[in-house]
TrEMBL record:
This is Alkyl hydroperoxide reductase C. The keyword Oxidoreductase applies. It comes from Metapseudomonas resinovorans. It holds the Pfam family AhpC-TSA. It comes from the Bacteria. It catalyses: a hydroperoxide + NADH + H(+) = an alcohol + NAD(+) + H2O. Residues 2-166 form the Thioredoxin domain. The keyword Cell inner membrane does not apply. Homodimer; disulfide-linked, upon oxidation. 5 homodimers assemble to form a ring-like decamer.
């Protein structure tokens, strides 16, 4: 698995666009993205195992609920799984908690990015619940991976992003606005 200091691998895939709900046809709901599409911005990239499941929508909604806070930090939120763009689109349109989410979902159907990141579950063949915080130069600054059965805490991801954005030493349980450490 890639780790802190590694570069985001090259990829090229379709994403379900943030305005997919209002697209008149599937072709207008998708856009092609690659590792340079988001260059110059902080990014939170999070993978979930499968669409149309039980734990995954709780996480996606929880990340979506924090979208404004990520935007306030000039950070892009990007979701991904190894399902196709058509499955993503259908799920976003079908699930009441996922309608109206305004961040892209990568369709890593060939396991291109998940494989390069090293986050494919060996038994199930799907992406693990992996979260990456990536800086404007596409360098990975944080990685966490959860078991397939256990959902993440997006608030913790936001806290970690805040700490990284300070570029200072942050003590245990530090939160935005608190004093950092000085040596």
């Amino acid at each position: 698995m890639l780790t802190i200091g590694d570069k985001l691998p090259a990829f090229d895939m379709l994403a379900v666009d943030h305005d997919s709900e209002h697209a008149t046809s599937p072709e207008h709901a998708f856009k092609r993205v690659n590792q340079d599409s988001f260059l110059g911005k902080w990014k939170v990239l999070f993978f979930w195992p499968k669409d149309f499941t039980f734990v995954c929508p709780t996480e996606i909604k929880a990340f979506g609920d924090l979208l404004e806070q990520f935007n306030d930090r000039d950070t892009l939120l990007i979701g991904a799984s190894t399902d196709s763009e058509f499955v993503h689109l259908a799920w976003r349109r079908d699930h009441k908690d996922l309608k109206g989410l305004s961040f892209p979902w990568l369709a890593d159907i060939k396991h291109e990015l998940a494989g390069a990141l090293g986050i494919i579950d060996r038994r199930e063949g799907v992406a693990l619940r992996a979260t990456f915080i990536i800086d404007p130069d596409n360098v990975i600054r944080h990685v966490s991976v959860n078991d397939l059965l256990v959902g993440r805490n997006p608030q913790e991801t936001l806290r970690l992003l805040d700490a990284l954005l300070t570029e200072e030493l942050c003590p245990c349980n530090w939160h935005k606005g608190e004093a950092t450490l000085h040596y």
